Amino acid sequence: MISFLSSCFIGLTSILSSKRNFWTFRIIFFQSLFECIDLGLALIYNLQIMQKETLNSQCNLIGYIMHSSWISSFCCCFLMIYQMKLLLKVEKFYETLSKNILKAIFLIAIFSYLWLLTPFILDGFVPTGWNSFEKKCKQYFFCGFGKDWKLYLVFWSLPQIIIFLNGVRIGINNKKLASIHLSTFQDEEFQMIKDLQKFPIIYAGAWSINQVIRYIDLNETIVEWIVFNHWSFGFYVLINLIFELHLLIVLYYFIKNYNQVLNIKQIWLSLLCCQKKVEIKDKESLLYQDVNGTS
Length: 295
What we know:
Elements (H helix, E strand, L loop, with lengths): L1 H15 L6 H25 L4 H6 L1 H30 L4 H7 L1 H15 L1 H5 L3 E7 L6 E8 L3 H32 L6 H7 L4 H20 L2 H8 L2 H15 L1 H17 L1 H8 L3 H20 L1
Antiparallel strand pairs: 1-2
Helix pairs in contact: 1-2, 1-13, 2-4, 4-5, 4-6, 4-8, 8-10, 10-12, 10-13
């Protein structure tokens, strides 16, 4: 729920801001939207809003949509870093991609669903979750890949490795380029892009943890040792929680980086029906400045 609300906050803030037409916030909005689709379906499954039998029978479809949404989110993260690279290197393709960013995101979504079509056809998505203590039951939270590690490796691990390794590499190079060419960018534009390279690092770290957890879950011998040992099980739960809450870290950096650029406080005051109060305060502030300026 916390992760879902974090992604919703980021997405709504981006689309409601006056900077929503800038490519950075368009990508961030769609990335958050893809995450919300996954997390929303996980909530439906976890809270059993629908009948359990219906959820289990539709788990393959639910898992297909969830994982396709995450791959779309990963690709959006990479797209931001790649677009920043084009800008810093002053390449002509930057303008072309900026004007067609929605088309690029649409193609990303199509690619994600096509990529996972094989696991879906093979009924590769099943109820998955955490192993509970002493293995009395398995706590199902979502629909994920089954026990076929080859399917998991090719269709889930491989795209993450490619996307995040390249994303982190480009992000590091972007940071070096930004420090060299800082004076060539307008202040506002640079404020929007200068810290983008942090996001692939956060996602790469979190999903590396997730990969370790999932491969452990595929080995029944290791799982049995973990769930019957207090210390190992405690660590197992801890790293699961760290992964599940990584979107809070993303939210923290989003607010830290874009609070002034987007005026986040005013966006949410306006959304929560406080627009008149905000306008009154702004008018009072302007009046105060005029009085002081003419005195």
